[in-house]
Design brief:
2 copies of one chain form a homodimer. In chain A, about 15% of the residues lie in helices and about 35% in strands. By secondary structure, chain A is an alpha+beta fold. The first copy, chain A, has 2 domains: about 40 residues, Ubiquitin Ligase Nedd4, Chain: W (Single Sheet); about 140 residues, Nucleoside Triphosphate Pyrophosphohydrolase (Alpha-Beta Complex), CATH 3.90.79. In chain A, strands 4, 5, 6, 7, 8, 9, 10 and 11 form an 8-stranded mixed β-sheet that branches. The longest helix of chain A is centred in the C-terminal third of the chain and has 16 residues. The interface between A and B is large, with 44 and 44 residues.
């Protein structure tokens, strides 16, 4: 899975082996000694609600261009999870949200990602397409385009959101996705 | 904060700038076009309990060698959060745990890390020092070495664990740590 071919510290070619005291093969630079660890990245987002409807965005970018998703994106350095969820919603759906309780944590193993989704309340009815979206829309439960949801982790989050809302509870839902399947 | 000086794809020097369509400066390779994103890494661990006592490890490695911590370490690619918590406990404390509910999520902003801790139940009383630990021990609440806990995120998790146990609830606790302070 590693795409590391050269050392980011000294520019020499790396080799792939288990460093002393480690358990897993890593990209190791034998020139300067740097071990290049690769770890899953965190994607954070939310399910924004307004007047009983859920805010979704239709993707303007790959992967899954044209499909619907909830606002979400990579957690940046120096940013809390809550801040990331609010920022992504502002960027992708031009909406201002109050981030609520934790909804779902999905280990997307094939993509080396963890998808963390929160519940959220829109502060106003305002929303629109940011540069990464073709359009945004508010959906009643019966209107959600289930066949056109971009990612399995988002479908999981939406299903659990609605199930909990029906039951008037707010649980956290864990899930593992082993392989790509839209 | 970036330590990237050379492109891991082609070995040429990188420049630091905001790529087109992006909001933040990244290490960009003008030779092959690769954008090197850097994101927070996830540390996963647990608070293992046996017969009312909590299992802690005294660190054999830096940072904070000699100080006490709960078993935790970097989430690896291809591994779920629950699996990582159990693996780290097996490696650092030679103990077998059943990982329980989510306890705490701490954004360690200065370190570009997210520390995720779970509650856990030891399957047997067996524990001992793995290669990264000097010793392990089970502590009653009154015996916990609060002045010698290695990391603020772990102190936070232990405090919340004990508070919830007193109240017979299992909440999730979020916290941000802005700067290094042991």
């Amino acid at each position: 899975m590693s795409t590391i071919r050269f050392c980011s510290n000294c520019g020499q070619t790396v080799t792939r082996r288990v460093p002393e005291g480690d358990q897993l093969p890593r990209a190791v630079c034998d020139h300067c000694g740097t071990v290049h660890y690769e770890n899953p990245r965190v994607v954070v987002g939310c399910v924004p609600e307004w007047d009983g409807r859920l805010l979704l965005c239709r993707r303007a970018i790959e992967p899954r261009r044209g499909y619907w998703t909830a606002p979400a994106g990579f957690l940046e350095i120096g940013e809390s999870m809550h801040a990331a969820a609010a920022r992504e919603t502002a960027e992708e759906a031009l909406a201002e949200v109050e981030v609520g309780t934790l909804l779902s944590v999905v280990n997307v193993l094939h993509a080396a990602q963890v998808h963390v989704m929160f519940r959220a309340r829109m502060r106003t009815a305002r929303h629109g397409a940011g540069v990464e979206s073709l359009e945004t829309a508010l959906f009643h439960e019966r209107e959600i385009p289930w066949d056109d949801i971009a990612f399995a982790s988002i479908r999981f989050a939406l299903e659990r959101y609605l199930g909990d809302r029906r039951d008037r509870v707010e649980h956290i839902h864990f899930h593992d996705i082993e392989r790509r399947a839209h």
